[in-house]
Amino acid sequence: MEHKSKSTVRRVGITDVAKAAPALIPDAPKMLKGAFRLVTVTGSTKNSLGLIFQKAAAKNPDRPFLRFEGTDITYGEANRLVNRYASVFAQHGVGRGSVVGILASNRPQTLLAALAAVKLGGTAGMLNYNQRGDVLNHSQKLLGSTVLVVGAESAEAFESLPRDEVEGAVIGLRNGDTTLDGANDLDDLAEGASDANPAECAEVTASDKAFYIFTSGTTGMPKASTMSHMRWMKSMYGLGGLGVRLSGDDVLYSCLPLYHNNALTVSLSSVLNAGATLAIGRSFSVSRFWDEVNESNATAFCYIGELLRYLLNQPERAAERRHKVRVIVGNGLRPEIWQEFQERFGIDRIAEFYGASECNLAFVNALNIDKTAGVCPLPFSIVEYDQATEEPHRGHDGKLRKVKSGQPGLLITKITNRAPFDGYTDPEASEKKVLRDAFKKGDEWFNTGDLVYKQGLFHIAFADRLGDTFRWKGENVATTEVEGALGSYKGVDQAVVYGVEVPGTDGKAGMAAIKLADGADLDPKGIADHLSDSLPSYAVPLFIRVIGEVEQTSTFKSRKVDLKDEGYDPDKVSDPLYVLAGKDKGYVEYYPEYADEVASGKIRV
Question: What positions does the domain AMP-binding enzyme C-terminal occupy (predicted)?
Fold first, then answer.
C-alpha cells in the first residue's frame, strides 16, 4: 500500500536518540524501574490499583492526593473515606467480581467511589453522565451492577432511565448540599462505617477487572471495554514511569471526564506512581483552562489532541505563560501544530502516547522526540490492509505482510500472557478484534483498527482510524491529514473530513465540514490554493460545507455519521455548500450538475 503526501512523515533515527539522551540522565532510575516492572508484571501478580493507593496513603498520609476547586484531600483522608465507602458497598453485597456502576460528574467523590469498588475486588463501571434515555439504559444494563451510584448532579440523566430496568441498588452521591431524591446518600451511609482497610484488597490479583470503560459511541451503541488491574498497572509503569515521570511534589491537572481512560488510567496512574497530587477540573473550559492550571499549581496536565488545538486557537493572554507546567501527557497532538504549541506555551516535554480503551498495550514518547507517539517494548506489527474490506491483507501463503518504514499500515498488537486482551462485556465483539495465525500457526494479535506510520526504531505516529480513511483516484486519503491542512488555514476554527459517494466514480470523494472562526469569511480561492499547496491532488476535498458548530462526543471526537449521511444532498443540507471547480477557479457555490460533471470527466480535479 503506497501513500504519497506533500507532508513528510517524521523518521526517528539514532541521531534523535543521541540528542535526547543527556536530558534523560536524571530520570534514568525511574525509567529503568518502570521498564522492568512493565515487562515483568503478570496476571497472577497479587497487586492492584486499590493496594497501590492504599500503600501510597500509608507512606504519605499528609500529602495532598486530590485538589479540587481550592480544596485538598490528603492521601490519608482519602483512604479513610474510600474505606468507609467500601464498607457501605460491602453491606449492599459488593464483593470480588461485583460491579459498582457510577453515574457522576468530575469531582473527588466520584473517583473515591471508584477506588472503593476496586478495593473490594469489584469493578467500577464508569457511565457517561452526558448520555440519556436508550443509550444510557443500554450502557447501564451492560454493567449488571450490584450497586449504582448516582450523583445528585446527574439526576436528569438518571430520570431518563426506565425505573423498572435500572440494575442494582441505587445510592445517591451528594453534590454540595444537593442530594438525589428517593435514594439513600452514600456520605450519610458512610457516617460511622469502618475506615479500616478492607481485607479483600490484599487478595485482588492483576488479572481481576478494575474498570469498565465505554467507547464514545460516535456510531451505534457504546461498548464496555474491560480494564484489568494488570493493564492499569502497565499504564502506571509504562506511561507513568517511563513517559510522564512525576515526583512526589508534582501536581497533575486533568479536566477530562473521569469515565475516560486519559483521566482514570493515564492521569491517576501517573500520580500514584509518584505519590503526587491529582488536580481535578470539573470540565474543560477553553477560556478558564490556564487559570485553573495556575490556581491548582499544576506542573503537568493531561490532554486530548483537540483540547490543545482549541487552546492554540485562542488569543494570547498572560495566564498562558505564568504556569509551572513542564510536562504534558496525552494523545492526538497533530504533528503540524506540535512545535507551535510547544513554543507558544513554553512546554518542556510532551509525553504523547498511543493507546485505546481496549488495546492490550500502549506506546509513549519517553525520549521527548517531536511528532511521535513513541515506543513500546512489547510485541507489535504494522501490516498491509485491504481498503475495500478494511481487513488485514494476507498473502498467497495466508500470512500478513508488514509495511516498510515511513509507510502507514494497520497496527496490530500481539496477545500474550504479559499483554492479554481484556475484551468487552460482549464476547462476540471481543472475538471480532482478534487475528489468528497472522505470521505463524497459533499466534493471536489484537486488531486496533488504527492506521499508523512506521517511523523507525520502534516508534510510531498515528495516521487515521481505518474506517475514516477513504479511497479516491486509486489512493488512500487519511482524514486526519486533510483535517490538519484545513486547520492550519487562517479563518478555519474546526474541520471534519469524510468520504462521500459520487455516482459513476470509483471510491469516495473528499468532503469537509468546516466551522469558521468568529468574524471570518470563507475565501473560496484562497482555501483551494492552500489545500493544493498542502496536500496531494487526490486528497483535496471536492466539497466544502460551512457549518455553525462541529458536534462532538464528550471525549472530543467529532460525530461524522450524520454528516456522511447528509453528504451534499441539497434537500438535507441547508448550510453554505461549495465545490471544487478546478485549480484555477478554486471553490464555487454548489450546483446540481456538479456530480455528473465529475463523473463524466468534465471537471478535472
Answer: 481-557
Alpha-carbon distance of 505 to 313, in angstroms, equals 37
The CATH 3.40.50.12780 domain(s) of the chain lie at: 14-364
- DSSP letter for 242, please: I
- The C-alpha atoms of residue 510 and residue 88 are separated, in whole angstroms, by 55
Q: What is the pLDDT of residues 126-159, one digit of tens each?
A: 998 988 888 899 999 999 999 999 999 999 999 9
Cα 162 to its chain centre, rounded Å, is 30
Distance CA 452, CA 562 (A): 26
The torsion angles phi and psi of 154, rounded to 5 degrees, stand at -105, 20
Q: Does domain 14-364 have CATH number 3.40.50.300?
A: no
Q: Which three cell numbers stand for residue 301?
A: 496536565
**At 63, is the secondary structure helix, strand, or coil?**
coil
Name the class of domain 376-465: mainly beta
> Which residues on neighbouring strands pair with residue 225, listed in sequence order?
213, 424
Q: Are 422 and 209 in contact (CB under 8 A)?
A: yes
Give span(s): CATH 3.30.300.30, the chain.
472-600
Residue pLDDT, tens place only, 243-288:
999 999 999 999 999 999 999 999 999 999 999 999 999 999 999 9
Fold type of domain 472-600: GMP Synthetase; Chain A, domain 3 (3.30.300)
Write out the H or E segment, with its range, that includes residue 577: strand 577-580
Rounded distance, CA 357 to CA 361, Å?
10
**Whole-model pTM?**
0.82
Q: Which pLDDT belongs to residue 94?
A: 98
Do residues 336 and 7 lie in contact, with contact meaning Cβ atoms separated by under 8 Å? yes
3-state SS assignment for residue 528: helix
Give the count of alpha carbons within 13 A of 174, CB side only.
Answer: 11
Looking at the chain, which residues constitute the CATH 2.30.38.10 domain(s)?
376-465
> Taking the chain (605 residues) in consecutive chunks of 10 residues, what is each chunk's mean pLDDT?
53 94 93 88 91 98 98 98 98 97 98 98 95 89 97 96 96 96 97 96 96 68 89 94 96 95 96 98 94 98 87 92 97 89 97 88 94 92 85 93 90 92 87 94 94 92 81 77 89 92 85 93 94 86 93 63 90 95 92 91 78
| Length reported for the chain | 605
pLDDT of residue 417: 86
Handedness of CA 186, 187, 188, 189 (dihedral sign): positive
- What is the grid cell recorded at 11? 523518521
